[in-house]
Specification:
The chain is built from eleven helices and no strands. Helix 2 packs antiparallel against helix 3 and helix 5 runs antiparallel to helix 8. The longest helix has 41 residues. It has 249 residues and is mainly alpha-helical. The radius of gyration is 25 Å and the shape is globular. The C terminus is likely disordered.
Length: 249
């Protein structure tokens, strides 16, 4: 038991690695995750609109993209983008692997976000689009001002859940060989474990991930319940009975 505690819960090792995890690892994990979510949201919205198109020449490429990136393991996509692009001479971010890490996670996120947004937009009653058109709006204006905002609101819990997944998938970018200053939580802990042969650093990184994902999970669940059940109705104010009024008077 003592050996188990020393391997996984060595207090000195955890205290020694925490400053680097919190200053470098946590910051880079959030940068990668938030950037990937924003990129995935923008690209996912475009893909969602393409998926709903009646033109096969528009719909088919979006469907292929979504099926491919949802079907591939995340670690394979990250390897193909982060290692394959620079090797093939495609270097939009130069030689720094940090940009490729964000791009890879963002491309994966976009495939799932597209399906989330598509389902949200298609859940809006078609009568609202027709009503907007009858008021003189164009198809684009009606979608931008009426349908899409409501569709996004309906799937906000699912989008938040996607952010949680992006936080966890950001740990896979370690294989791109991030340099000091660019390392995320897992890579810092992994390097420490490789040097000391003690897994306490990995446990410390796991705690950091849990501190981010568990609160978000409860927020998503509460948000989802609120959207499904609606706002709680205000309690009715009791009306004093005739006998009570007589006593008061």
């Amino acid at each position: 038991m003592e050996e188990f505690l020393h391997t996984f819960f060595d207090l000195d090792s955890i205290v020694a690695i925490l400053p680097v995890l919190l200053t470098e690892g946590l910051a880079n994990t959030l940068i990668i995750s938030v950037s990937a979510v924003l990129a995935g949201l923008l690209l996912g919205l475009v893909l969602a609109m393409m998926l709903m198109s009646k033109l096969w020449i528009v719909k088919v490429p979006a469907r292929i993209y979504v099926d491919v990136f949802r079907g591939l393991p995340a670690i394979l996509t990250i390897s193909l983008v982060g290692l394959g692009f620079p090797a093939a001479g495609i270097r939009p971010f130069g030689t720094s692997p940090f940009g490729y890490a964000i791009l890879a996670v963002g491309l994966i996120s976009a495939a799932y976000t597209a399906e989330i947004l598509r389902s949200g937009i298609q859940s809006i009653d078609k009568g609202q689009l027709q009503a907007a058109r009858s008021l003189g709006m164009t198809q684009f204006q009606a979608m931008r001002k009426i349908v899409i905002p409501q569709g996004i609101r309906n799937v906000l819990p699912a989008l938040t859940n996607r952010f949680i997944i992006d936080i966890k998938e950001s740990s896979l970018v370690y294989l791109l060989g991030l340099s000091v200053g660019q390392r995320e939580l897992y890579f810092i802990a992994y390097q420490q474990q490789a040097v000391t042969y003690n897994s306490s650093a990995l446990v410390a990184a796991g705690i950091c991930y849990l501190l981010m994902t568990i609160p978000l999970t409860y927020v998503v669940n509460a948000w989802d319940r609120r959207l499904r059940t609606g706002r709680s109705r205000p309690k009715a104010v009791p009306v004093p009975s005739q006998s009570t009024m007589e006593v008061v008077s």
